Amino acid sequence: MSQAGVQRPAFARRWWGLLAVALLPLILLGAFGPEQAPLPDSLAMPLFVAALLSMFVGLPLFRRYKHALIGCGRALNGADEGTAWSELAKAQRHGLLGALLPAWFAAFGQLADLHGVPVLLLAFASVLIAILYRLPCQLR
Asked: Mind telling me which residue stretches traverse the membrane in this protein (predicted)?
């Protein structure tokens, strides 16, 4: 089996796993969170602004992922295919962690009584940014 056949399932598992790690705090705090917000309400807006700014953390990370993706496509069936796949995995992992920051800020925002609409917007933003880090069809 080629290196690509071994790597594809690992990429899918990593993507779904990190997506679950990002959304699990939101779900748990929504279902089992405290009735009263333990953080002051005045922190809700700064947390929302910080979450919006955290979306820009992913820009240089996505550029690295894009270059690793191009390098992996060029290295398919070559001598350095294994190295290219490992570089792509590293770039994807770092990019996903950066992409999921808005969802984590939304989870902290729930502790400061951030309303439901901004929390949902931040969670959807994280999911949409994370979709960019899925393995494209050309490498499947």
From this structure: 12-32, 44-62, 95-112, 118-135
